[in-house]
Amino acid sequence: MADPFGIIGVIGVAGQIIQMGIQFGLDWKDAPADVKSFMAELQVLKTAISETNTNIALNQDFINAFQGRHSTVLSQLTDVTPATDTSVMVSACRTELEHLLAELKKRAQGHRVGWERMKGAFLAKKTREAVENLQRQCQFLNNLVVVDSAALQATILKEVREGTMNQQAREAADEENAILHWLTPVDYAPQQSDFINRRQVGTGQWLLDSPEFQVWLQTDKQTLFCHGMPGAGKTILTSIVVDELMARFGNDKGTGIAYIYCNFRRQDEQKVEDLFASLLKQLAQGRSSLPDSVKSLHDNYKAKRTRPPSADISVALQSLAAEYSRVFIIVDALDECQASDGCRMKLLSELFSFQANVE
Questions:
Q1: CA–CA dist 261, 335 (Å, integer)
Q2: Kindly report the CA angle at 195 between 191 and 201, in degrees rounded to 5?
Q3: Is the pLDDT assigned to residue 25 strictly greater than 80?
Q4: Are 309 and 273 a contacting pair, CB within 8 Å?
Q5: pLDDT digits over 183-231, tens only?
Q6: Helix (H), strand (E) at residue 255
Q7: Class of the CATH domain delimited by 185-357
Q8: In whole angstroms, what is the distance from residue 149 CA to residue 153 CA?
Q9: DSSP 71-95
């Protein structure tokens, strides 16, 4: 840091005044009491302001440590608009000391130099007050260095702890995401967004307003089956129902929502265990932390490098559903689910069993 307020200048002037006695052969022990008192204050000032200069102005490490952080002491030395107490005191003290030094040099001219000739220069009230004020201010600043250092240590410790906690949270989130991805990489959310964006204003409102939908919405363990010809818009209606449920219960942690969009082009990845894994994944994502049932399923089969069977996924799904007060499951295009290997019937059987067993 530069010397914006002339701290070094004050040190220099104070040193010159102290050296005057040596230069002119004065014995400070014989000085009058008021002069001794002033010189003691001046020596304390010189020590305090030198410490201030060393601790702050010349300590680049201290300055760098507060980059981007508030420092009370640095604000005292760098905030020059408006002028701080420190800048005013340094300026006033330097002016008075320079005046005193000039007066001492003037009085020292001649053949006789003694206290009778010199002491008058030390009696100026403004000079004494300027020295005392700046000396107290420098001690105050030096104390602030200690306070700022302690505050900095506390701030750094807090930042380290928060950084550690954030890192741990990120690692935990990454681990949970990895487990959910292991469960199934399938994500139906992009399809839901695509379908609902195709909706025209008012489309499907008749379904949402229908008595059948309202009964299904408000009554436990209900099944609402909507059938129609291919191309009739059932998938858009499904997305409308999902969107309605999300709008109603999206912020309700007690309500679980999961949905499946069956597609005959993706039958190879839509076996019954895949579909149930997707339901399990979606309900797990609705919890604040990864449920133990999902962790246990992962731990049991990940190490074996095998996939869990539908029965174990169903057990985990039942366990997870018990954490919700209500669970909505929506399946679109059931007719596009495989029928040849019994997948469709098994899916329906598992869903009805799930519905019957959920408390």
A1: 11
A2: 155
A3: no
A4: yes
A5: 999 999 999 999 999 998 899 999 999 999 999 999 999 999 998 888 8
A6: strand 255-261
A7: alpha beta
A8: 6
A9: -HHHHHHH--SSPPHHHHHHHHHHH
- Kindly list the distances between the CA atom of residue 122 and the CA atoms of 31, 109, 116, in Å, as whole numbers in the listed order: 11, 17, 11
Q: How is residue 58 annotated by DSSP?
A: T
Q: How confident is the model at residue 135 (pLDDT cuts 50, 70, 90)?
A: confident
Most confident segment among 71-85, 292-306, 336-350: 292-306
Instruction: Provide the residue ranges of all domains of the chain, joining segments of one domain with +.
Output: 4-173, 185-357
Contact predicate 240/213, CB 8 Å? no
293-303 average pLDDT score = 91
Highest mean pLDDT among 55-59, 62-66, 170-174, 327-331: 327-331
Q: Tokens 């174990």 — which residue?
A: 312
Packing angle of the helix pair 125-183, 85-107 (nearest 10 deg): 150
Half-sphere exposure (Cβ direction) of 178: Cα atoms closer than 13 Å: 8
Judged on CB neighbours under 10 Å (0-12, 13-18, 19+), 98 is middle
d(CA 209, CA 231): 22
